[in-house]
Specification:
The chain is of the alpha/beta class. The protein is built from 23 helices and 16 strands.
Length: 513
Amino acid sequence: MPVAPSAAAPPPALPLDAEGILALAARSMFHLFSSISQGMFLVDRSGRIVWVNEGYRRFLPALGFSSIDEFMGHMVEDVIPNTMMRRVLDTGEPILIDLLTNKAGTFVVSRIPLREERADGEGLGKVIGAIGIVLFDQPETTLQPLISKFALLQRDLDDARRELASQRNNPLYQHAPDGQRRSKYTFASFIGSSPAAVEVKRHARRAAQSTSPVLLLGETGTGKELLAHAIHASSTRAKGQFVSVNIAAVPDTLLEAEFFGFAPGAFTGADKRGREGKFKLADGGSLFLDEIGDMPLGLQAKLLRALQEGEIEPLGSNKLIPFDARVIAATSRDLPELVRRGLFREDLYYRLNVLPLRVPPLRERRSDIPALVEALGEDMALRSGEAPPELTPDALALLAGQHWRGNIRELRNVLEQVTMRSDSQRIDAAQLERILREAGLDQIEAPDTSHSLRDVDQEAELLRPLSQQVAELERKAIAAALENTGGNKLATSRLLGISRATLYERMTGMGLS
């Protein structure tokens, strides 16, 4: 006969009460952390070190202590640089994972506050101390992916801080409202003291005082956009917006909307709120039309009307909107030739060609190359965090002998390649020529002396080694600048676009007092 199952037996009684288990768990966890961590210590409410485990002993010599007894009793911030333990004591909030770097090394650490029990038994009370735990003492091997990501983020942050600092130090940025498009350059940014560079800056400064359209003409990479920024920055519209449109970079079908904006629902896919065009954004400021020679004929008539009437009509709208923007246009193409071929409207050409400025190519101002190399090198160093290349006089002479079809943009590209390809910071002519050939520039050109010579003396002058010619031009430029500034070294260095240290070095080498 089967036996009926008996009632379920009650579970066995716990060997300890709940409080006992909690106390046992706390002791067990404490000993566990002490044994598996790389080091651990305790501080009291005041921040004084009251206990240190044996694992922490190996960090003491780097911190300046020979024994645990000598280490204990000190305030934690006095003996552990960069610790965050004081914040844990003050806030009662733990810092579970953190990177700590000091003279003992770099560590992954954890900081946990200790609280006393409340008298009523309801939870924990005030902070009475804290535990510091060294989880890893070689994070570069155990946490390499995390460290690499941290280093990358830190580098980006440093770059952003440098850029922000440069903007704050620029007076053009100090009074502009948030979100406003600002000019980035001034005439001081156009490096060079050659006759050609001085002349174009002189004409550009005069153009800045006018309200008429400016047409910047020159090969690619000569600095037309830089001058456009500088003209705006020196004009009465400097506090207004500087709005730029690269016509060659915008599809023809989108140019009209880019220029004039569009009304809500003007075409399929259009923003329901509509959009303001660049002309309206530049109201009260300057509108820079880069590569104007690439503008399609169909849009040229609308641009001409907008310039003549001072008003625009957004796509899909029958409302005319007035605007007041100073137009600065630029092109690397031959506009008169385009007019003759019927590819550019003659009336628009005359409307834009009120104040034409020809920006000289680099081969017409070779004496500016040393200053340009220095300025470009310093900018590259600021962006990369590495030291700029140092070119010897014969290497500079080799650079001065090139044709520079891409002008300053090409020069910068060559300097970047030189920096990346060379094992040495100092570059001579032999290294530079090898690097240029490795970069695919097989034809290393000599300076052009094919123009007619007035007499034998002039011919002898031009046939001197290029390094001597560059040095003589540099000496004359420095002497002229010193005379112009009354011997003021700081003003002279700014006029020449070089640092004061470089000016002193060049003057010493040239025997200029």
